[in-house]
Amino acid sequence: MSAQKCTVAVCQFTATNNKETNLKIVKELVSEAAQKSAKVVFLPEASDYIATSKEEAKALAEPLSGTLINEYKNLAKNQKVWLSVGGFHELTQTNNETKIFNSHVLIDDTGEIKSIYKKMHLFDVSIPEANVHLRESETNVAGNEIVAPTITPAGPLSLAICYDLRFPELSVLQRKQGASILTYPSAFTHATGLLHWEVLLRARAIETQCYVVAAAQYGKHNEKRTSFGQALGKVVAECPKFRDGHYSNQSVALAEIDPELIRKVRREMPVFEHRRDDIYQLEAVGNPSLPITDNVVYKFSEKVIPESTVFYRTQYCYAFTNIRCVVPGHVLISTLRCCRKLEDLMEPEVSDLFKTAVKVQKVMEEVHKTTSTTLCVQDGQYAGQTVPHVHIHILPRKANDFERNDEIYDRLAQHDRQDSGMPLRSNAEMSEEATLLRKYFY
């Protein structure tokens, strides 16, 4: 998590089907935000355009390699800000099939794309009495991945879009992945926004103990579409709310992200430590890589492993370089939760630990140019465990590295002893190795 306070900006405007006009407005808003010292600028969903028909929506879409994304990248670079393009109609071509994703694109201040999230929950809703008839699935394809938080000047930031706001499971998982900022760029309808918008944003902030940033579309886009605008950043900042008779708005609201406030809130009310994972569980499918951040304590029994020596992390475990190596590339994987034996782990932790072991094994074999590995768990004192915390040894093997192949187990049992003959490595040496290994995972 960033140690410094950071100014962010949320931008609100009334997009239409005129992409050139929309881009001109975006440039004006981002320039204004940059002049006011914002380091991260957030644009609403459908910043590129809001079409008048599904046919037009498809016709106006562009690939990530297209002109418009290039304009956004240059804008971020020229204004020296991180730019959240909250909703871009991403045109893709796979197996001779054209698809459009509603993509949240995060660009850094050098103009490089750092993360892309494809909206998972599509808004297919019909409310006749409110004259709401929208089927996002008629033009867009749903994404299928929760992307890991990205480290930004404001802190670890997770991406979502609009309707995702109604699914608290997503925000809880993003917090568990290490997020301190949740983002919901939106184009809420007036009917639902008036009743639900602020309530849902507050709920996500309270339950996850994260800042919530939501840049919104505002007003009347065409004869068929009106959005409820109010870009929220506690409410620590907001743009004007939609009012009847005021059909367009172009504005910027600034807010300060204070990482120390997040730490204070989580320390005083540690709700995520109180979750009863032994009774109920919420897990993402798969084994996603999570960013290595300083808001995670890497406990190894009574020891704390320096963040600089950690090279890979998941929801339940982490991999780090070893202070004494039996063979070159000897690394360790341990659980984030302190557990003495395998039997003390919950099922998701067991699964995550061994999936991580396989992933780390493949990387270490690639780095050390071999095709064999010894994986070892010393499960308890009499098995040779000297640190009472579940961990796996990953030891890349080569031909004739020991006179007797099984000698490695004797060496492993002795390697923590002062008379083992194996030197202690410096923190600088372990950190240098970890920096190299991170490149294979991130």
Features of this protein?
9 helices; HIT family, subunit A; Histidine_triad_CS; alpha+beta; Nitrilase/N-carbamoyl-D-aminoacid amidohydrolase; 6-stranded mixed beta sheet; hydrolase; about 25% helix; 2 domains; about 450 residues; 21 strands
SSE layout and pairings?
Blueprint: E1 6-12, H1 19-35, E2 40-42, H2 54-60, H3 67-79, E3 82-94, E4 97-107, E5 113-118, E6 124-127, E7 132-135, E8 150-152, E9 155-159, H4 168-176, E10 181-183, H5 190-208, E11 211-213, E12 219-220, E13 226-227, E14 251-257, H6 259-268, E15 299-300, E16 303-304, E17 310-313, E18 317-321, E19 331-335, H7 347-367, E20 372-376, E21 391-397, H8 407-414, H9 427-438
Parallel strand pairs: 1-2, 2-3, 9-10, 10-11
Antiparallel strand pairs: 1-14, 3-4, 4-5, 6-7, 8-9, 12-13, 15-16, 17-18, 18-19, 19-21, 20-21
Task: Describe what this molecule looks like in 3D.
This protein has 442 residues and is of the alpha+beta class. It folds into two domains: 261 residues, Carbon-nitrogen hydrolase (Nitrilase/N-carbamoyl-D-aminoacid amidohydrolase); 140 residues, HIT family, subunit A. The chain contains nine helices and 21 strands. The strands form six sheets. It has a six-stranded mixed β-sheet with strand order 5-4-3-2-1-14. A five-stranded antiparallel β-sheet has the order 17-18-19-21-20. The radius of gyration is 25 Å and the shape is elongated. About 3% of the residues have low confidence.
